[in-house]
Specification:
- The protein has about 375 residues and is α+β, with helices and mostly antiparallel strands.
- It has nine helices and 18 strands.
- It has helices spanning about 5-15, 25-40, 100-120, 140-145, 200-210, 250-270, 295-305, 320-325, 350-365, and strands at about 45-50, 50-60, 70-75, 85, 90-95, 130-135, 155-160, 165-170, 175-185, 215, 220-230, 240-245, 275-285, 285, 310-315, 330-335, 335-340, 345-350.
- The strands form three sheets. Strands 1, 2, 3, 6, 7, 8, 14, 15 and 16 form a nine-stranded mixed beta sheet that branches.
- A hairpin with a 7-residue loop joins strand 17 and strand 18.
- Helix 7 (about 295-305) crosses helix 9.
- It is elongated, with a radius of gyration of 24 Å.
- About 45% of the residues are buried.
Length: about 375
C-alpha cells in the first residue's frame, strides 16, 4: 500500500535539513516551503510571530470527509548553520559537526511527499490544513503566537515525537515555571557577618528541602538556574533561582507548587528573610483517550500500513499541548527522529517512508 518515491523523499528531506533554520530565523525554509506547496496547488499564508512567521498551508478537499490538521515546526536547535547530510543505505545522519534537523524536518518532508503522491494518484480527501510553526524550540513560542481560531480542523495530528513510526502520545504534562527571589541583608563579610542575612544561604536551604527530580511516574520538578551575590566580602543581600514543575495531573503539579511556597515561607521566617515568588504556566497538559475518534483514526490508519500503535505518555510538551487547549482534539505522533538535539542525531530511511505512508493513511481514514 502506497508506493512511496524513496529517492524523491530522501532528496526533499536532505534539502530541508541543509537549510539553516534556527529559532526565529526561518525565512529561508519559509521560501522553500511556499515554493514547494504552491506547486502542489495549496494556498499558503504566513502569519507574523515575533521575529519570524508561522506558515499555514491549506489544501481544498474534494470529498465530504472532516477537515483535519497536520502540524510540525520549521525551526531546529543549534548548531544548524552548516548541516551536511550523510546518506547510507539505511539511514541519514549529519557529518557529526551539527544536528541533522530531523526534529522536525522529517515531518515536513513526509507532508510534502504525501501531497506529491496525492497529486500524482488523484487521491480524494477532505479539507486539510498544515500548520508549520516557528520558534517551537524556544518554549512553543510560535504556536503561542498563532491565532488557532482561524483553523477549521476537527482533529489534529502533530508529527513531533522521537522514535520509530507507531508511537502515539496521548498524555503530556502541565508545565509551570517559578522564580524564587530571596531578600536578605547586606553586611561586611569579614567585619560584621552577624549583622547580615545571607540570601544565598537561605535559598540553599530552600533548594535542599523542596521536591525535586522524579516525584512520581507523572510528576517532576527541577531547579535549573541559580544566581546571587556581588562579592565574596559582602554578605549577599539577594539570591534567586528558577525552577519548573511538570505533571500529567494538574492537581499534582499544583500540590508541588504549594509545597514549594510553604517551604519558602517557613525557611524565610526562620532566617528573617523576605521572598517573592513569580509563577507562570508554560502550557497546559492533555489526556486523550485511546477510545477517542482521533486515536481510532490513527489506530486504523496504522493497521492499514502494517504498523502496531503504541499509546504512551510523554514528559515533555509540544505544539500538541497548545492545539488541545484550543479545543481541537490532537495527538502527537513519532516521526522517526533519533538522538535529537545532538550531533549524533539520525533518522532511518524506513521511518521516513513509513511516516509518509502514515500521513497518507490518516488522510484517507478520516471519516
Amino acid at each position: 500500500m502506497y508506493n512511496i518515491n524513496r529517492e524523491r523523499l530522501i532528496k526533499t528531506f536532505v534539502e530541508l535539513a541543509e537549510i539553516p533554520s534556527p529559532s526565529w530565523k526561518e525565512e529561508q525554509i519559509l521560501k522553500y516551503l511556499i515554493k514547494r506547496f504552491d506547486k502542489l496547488g495549496a494556498n499558503c499564508q504566513t502569519y507574523r510571530c515575533g521575529e519570524s512567521f508561522n506558515l499555514l498551508i491549506r489544501f481544498k478537499g474534494n470529498s465530504n470527509q472532516n477537515p483535519i490538521l497536520l502540524s510540525g515546526h520549521m525551526d531546529t536547535v543549534i548548531p544548524c548553520d552548516k548541516v551536511k547530510a550523510i546518506i547510507s543505505d539505511t539511514k541519514i545522519t549529519s557529518d557529526g559537526t551539527s544536528v541533522l534537523g530531523s526534529d522536525d524536518k522529517a515531518a515536513i518532508a513526509m507532508f510534502i511527499e504525501a501531497f506529491e503522491y496525492i497529486k500524482e494518484n488523484k487521491i480524494k480527501h477532505g479539507d486539510i490544513e498544515i500548520l508549520l510553526t516557528c520558534a517551537e524550540e524556544q518554549g512553543l513560542k510560535g504556536i503561542k503566537g498563532f491565532d488557532l481560531s482561524v483553523l477549521m480542523a476537527k482533529y489534529g495530528f502533530v508529527f513531533d515525537s522521537s522514535g520509530s513510526i507507531g508511537k502515539v502520545i496521548v498524555k503530556a504534562p502541565y508545565h509551570s515555571n517559578m522564580t524564587i527571589t530571596i531578600k536578605g541583608k547586606a553586611s561586611h563579610a569579614g567585619m560584621a557577618p552577624e549583622k547580615g542575612i545571607n540570601a544565598i544561604r537561605v535559598l540553599s536551604e530552600i533548594i535542599s528541602q523542596i521536591p525535586q527530580g522524579r516525584i512520581d511516574e507523572e510528576t517532576t520538578a527541577n531547579v535549573g538556574i541559580i544566581s546571587g551575590g556581588r562579592a565574596t566580602n559582602i554578605v549577599p543581600e539577594e539570591a534567586q533561582c528558577q525552577l519548573e514543575v511538570r505533571s500529567i495531573d494538574q492537581k499534582k503539579m499544583l500540590a508541588v507548587e504549594k509545597e514549594i511556597k510553604e517551604t519558602v515561607k517557613k525557611i524565610c521566617s526562620q532566617y528573617r528573610a523576605k521572598s517573592t515568588i513569580e509563577r507562570t504556566l508554560e502550557y497546559a497538559g492533555f489526556k486523550i483517550s485511546p477510545e477517542s475518534t482521533v486515536c481510532k483514526i490513527t489506530e486504523t490508519a496504522m493497521k492499514k500500513i502494517g504498523i502496531k500503535p503504541e499509546f504512551i505518555a510523554m514528559g515533555g510538551g509540544s505544539d500538541t499541548n497548545i492545539i488541545n487547549s484550543s479545543g481541537i482534539k490532537a495527538i502527537n505522533l513519532s516521526c522517526g527522529m533519533q538522538n535529537i538535539h545532538s550531533t549524533e542525531e539520525f533518522i532511518l530511511i524506513k521511518d521516513l517512508i513509513n511516516g509518509t505512508k502514515l500521513v497518507l493513511s490518516i488522510i484517507e481514514t478520516v471519516p
